[in-house]
């Protein structure tokens, strides 16, 4: 299973937007950090499922050494 870095952005009105730079357009939101991370995991799974359904290449995961 691939691992992907996420970017958390705290919103001024509350909550967190999460993006996955390696997966263009993979963006989600959570009311708190825990929910945002959980939502990111789900968004990544759905994104990869969609790529598989289309027969497209799955992007390699991010290196943990780059963290």
TrEMBL record:
<dbReference type="InterPro" id="IPR031807">
    <property type="entry name" value="HicB-like"/>
</dbReference>
<dbReference type="InterPro" id="IPR051404">
    <property type="entry name" value="TA_system_antitoxin"/>
</dbReference>
<dbReference type="Pfam" id="PF15919">
    <property type="entry name" value="HicB_lk_antitox"/>
</dbReference>
<protein>
    <submittedName>
        <fullName>Antitoxin HicB</fullName>
    </submittedName>
</protein>
<dbReference type="InterPro" id="IPR035069">
    <property type="entry name" value="TTHA1013/TTHA0281-like"/>
</dbReference>
<feature type="domain" description="HicB-like antitoxin of toxin-antitoxin system">
    <location>
        <begin position="4"/>
        <end position="65"/>
    </location>
</feature>
């Amino acid at each position: 299973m691939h691992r992907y870095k996420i970017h958390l952005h705290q919103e001024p009105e509350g909550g967190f937007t999460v993006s996955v730079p390696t997966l263009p357009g993979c963006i989600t939101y959570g009311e708190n950090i825990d929910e945002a991370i959980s939502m990111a995991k789900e968004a990544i799974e759905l994104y990869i499922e969609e790529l598989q359904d289309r027969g497209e290449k799955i992007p390699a995961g991010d290196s943990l050494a780059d963290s």
